[in-house]
Design a protein that fits this description.
This protein is α/β, with parallel strands linked by helices. It is built from four helices and four strands, in the order H-E-H-E-E-H-E-H. 31% of the residues lie in helices and 13% in strands. Helix 1 crosses helix 2.
Length: 122
């Protein structure tokens, strides 16, 4: 699924514009494949992330297939990994450490200093 902004005039509520597009696709039973469920950009800018779009799509009744961490098919790659053999290193509690928590035997290392949660901790 690709959602583009054709028809956007540059004025008004862009979030409402995108949600309107998602509602149309949801009524057509078009599934969304979300390969990067991050909801917060590393540079903490206001632009939308794929995870945000996926959450909005579910709100309007759309079906979302999550492939990326912390859930979805990517976790199957680590089935059978012995505890302590693999570590997930990342800055997001939700996707990076969430992935480590959902994967049997995977440890997690949280790099928060310059990451997306840095300001919340300082």
């Amino acid at each position: 699924m690709a959602v583009h902004d054709e028809g956007w005039t540059g004025t008004g509520d862009y979030e409402a514009f995108v949600k309107g597009r998602l509602e149309v696709l949801g009524r057509r039973d078009t599934p969304m494949i979300c390969v990067n469920p991050d909801m917060i950009r590393p540079d903490v800018s206001k632009s939308m992330m794929p995870g945000t779009l996926a959450a909005w799509y579910e709100e309007v009744g759309g079906e979302v297939w999550r492939v990326g961490k912390p859930e979805g098919m990517v976790g199957e790659c680590f089935d059978g990994v012995e505890e302590g053999e693999w570590w997930m290193v990342g800055d997001s509690i939700y996707t990076d450490l969430g992935f480590a928590g959902n994967s049997k035997g995977m440890g997690g290392i949280w790099c928060w200093g310059e990451g997306i949660h840095g300001d919340d901790i300082r």
